[in-house]
Amino acid sequence: MKKFIGVMCALAMSVGAVSVQAQGDNKLNERLASASAVIDEVMSVPDRAIPQSILAGAHCVVVVPSYKKAAFGIGVQYGQGVATCRTPRGWSAPVFVQLEGGSFGWQIGGQSTDLVLVAMNHDGLEAMLKNKFKLGGDASASAGPVGRNAAADTDWTLKAEFLTYSRSKGLFAGIDLTGTVLSQNVDFTRQEYGHDVPFEQVLHGDISTPENARRFVHTVARYFVVSKVNE
Fold first, then answer.
1. Those residues with Cβ within 8 angstroms of residue 163's Cβ, 6 or more apart along the chain or in another chain
2. Could you say which DSSP state residue 210 is in?
3. Can you give the pTM of this predicted structure?
4. Which pairing describes strands 60-69 and 76-87: parallel, antiparallel, or unpaired?
5. Which three-class secondary structure state does DSSP give residue 160?
6. Could you tell me the CA-to-CA distances from 90 to 115, 139, 225 in Å, in that order?
7. What is the pLDDT along the chain (231 residues), one digit of tens a residue?
8. Other CB atoms closer than 10 Å to residue 75's CB: what's the count?
9. Could you tell me if 146 and 187 are in contact, meaning their C-beta atoms sit under 8 angstroms apart?
10. How far apart are CA 78 and CA 23, in angstroms?
11. Rounded CA separation 115/138 (Å)
12. What is the DSSP string of 73-125?
């Protein structure tokens, strides 16, 4: 009888572990799908989208769907997202990241917003490979320009390592994220790849893109391309 109870307990624990794993996988899949949808929706209106010159020059892209006020403190925001970087072989497999910081003012009064961060130069890329860094501190950041005519103003290319954007209530615009901290989500990345893997190894393109992440990577690759005008 004791042996039977022991077997049943072990079976229950095994089923529970599988259930927890499945729930975790679903969260990762949902985050990747949401990030893909954010990019598609942002780029669906060319007159209010990220300018082609920025798309062509981007080194890395971070998407944080539904960045919102955190429950653990007043004036604190928190969100989970995914990131990919351009490599000689195309865009890298993604890593999972988290963004948190103090109050920066919610655009158009929203309580939740989608964020897109674009690393524009080598310094921005190196910042992405660190464990944790502060926008506006460890890496310079500016609200990114939008629309087809924004490419005429090239001042941002000389100053900002990161260009930052927000999308709330259907509107897309640059936003000041100075003071927010971008860091690795090691647990989610480990779950995605099944083992610990260095972020720089993934973002340098040394790891194959998992099947569940291909849509996100392909979506970024479809828009963040070098046009013939820029070649």
1. 54, 117, 118, 120, 141, 142, 143, 144, 145, 156, 174
2. P
3. 0.81
4. antiparallel
5. coil
6. 23, 24, 10
7. 656 555 455 544 444 434 434 555 789 999 999 999 999 999 998 888 999 989 999 999 999 998 865 444 455 577 999 999 999 999 999 999 999 886 544 444 446 789 999 999 988 988 998 888 999 889 999 999 988 756 545 555 557 899 999 988 778 888 888 889 999 999 999 999 999 999 999 999 999 999 999 999 999 999 999 754 443
8. 10
9. no
10. 21
11. 19
12. STTEEEEEEEEEEEETTEEPPPEEEEEEEE----GGG-SEEEEEEEE-SHHHH
pLDDT for res 160? 85
Provide the greatest CA pair distance for the chain.
Answer: 79
Nearest Cα residue to 180 out of 167, 164, 169: 164
Rounded to 5°, the CA angle 46-209-204 comes to 85
The angle at the Cα of 108, spanning 103 to 148, to the nearest 5 degrees, equals 110
State the DSSP code for 144.
P
Q: What is the dihedral of CA 37, 220, 117, 40, to 10 degrees?
A: -30
Contact 94, 32 (CB under 8 A): yes
C-alpha–C-alpha distance, residues 213 and 222, integer Å: 14
Answer whether 96's CB lies under 8 Å from 80's CB: yes
CA-atom Rg of the chain in angstroms: 19
